[in-house]
Design brief:
201 residues, alpha/beta, Rossmann fold, 42% helix
């Protein structure tokens, strides 16, 4: 679906993030709007695919959680622990909306971002939303070694992780299903993304 402030809304420090670049895609006008939001559960590979798409499209890519951490000079885990989830959700929405005036970017958002403050509606209105829907077993396997850095699963035992992720996915489906495009399982490939972007661009 197609549709802070002004000209350079993203913090200067963001240039240090591996996703950041500034070149234009040779087949798309530099002035054309290409706003891509990658959504999905934690561990679904949103940041990985943002980096891959950056290299293909030659447009800047960003990680919303990383930007919030830069702005706050704290980790997401520290924000959750010190101020609670509600404060974090307000901060991530504030950062998300800063992309409203940017014309070309790929943004990887947090797993819960679409579920709060009408963020999903805003992303659909602003650009292309792509849900990366990996199997729960794949997510659990990837997340086992990252639990300490993930506030929502930090205190979940290894045995409980699959059931927790299943419940969380079910809870978020209402929002994820609003994505303009979905890639699931074997569809999550460069070819899958290429097909979506070819249709859009």
């Amino acid at each position: 679906m197609t549709a802070i402030t002004p000209n350079n809304p993203i913090p200067a420090q963001a240039s240090a993030h591996p996703c950041t670049t500034t070149s234009a895609h040779p087949h798309i006008s530099p002035s054309a709007h290409l706003r891509i939001f990658l959504i999905g559960m934690m561990g679904s590979g949103k940041s990985y695919w943002a980096e891959k798409l950056k290299r293909k499209l030659k447009v800047p890519c960003y990680d919303l959680d990383a930007l919030v951490e830069m702005m706050e000079e704290r980790t997401i885990a520290e924000i959750f622990e010190e101020d609670g989830e509600e404060t974090f959700r307000k901060l991530e929405t504030k950062m998300l909306k800063l992309f409203g005036e940017k014309k070309r970017f790929i943004l990887s958002v947090g797993g819960g971002t679409p579920c709060f403050n009408d963020n999903m509606k805003w992303m659909n209105k602003t650009g292309i939303t792509i849900w990366i829907d990996e199997p729960i077993e794949t997510l659990a396997q990837r997340l086992l070694k990252e639990k300490e850095h993930r506030p929502l699963i930090k205190n979940i035992t290894d045995d409980e992780l699959v059931s927790f992720l299943s419940a969380k996915r079910k809870e978020r489906m209402e929002f994820y299903n609003q994505a303009a495009f979905t890639l699931s399982g074997d569809e999550i490939t460069e070819a899958g993304f290429k097909k979506i972007l070819k249709e859009h661009a």
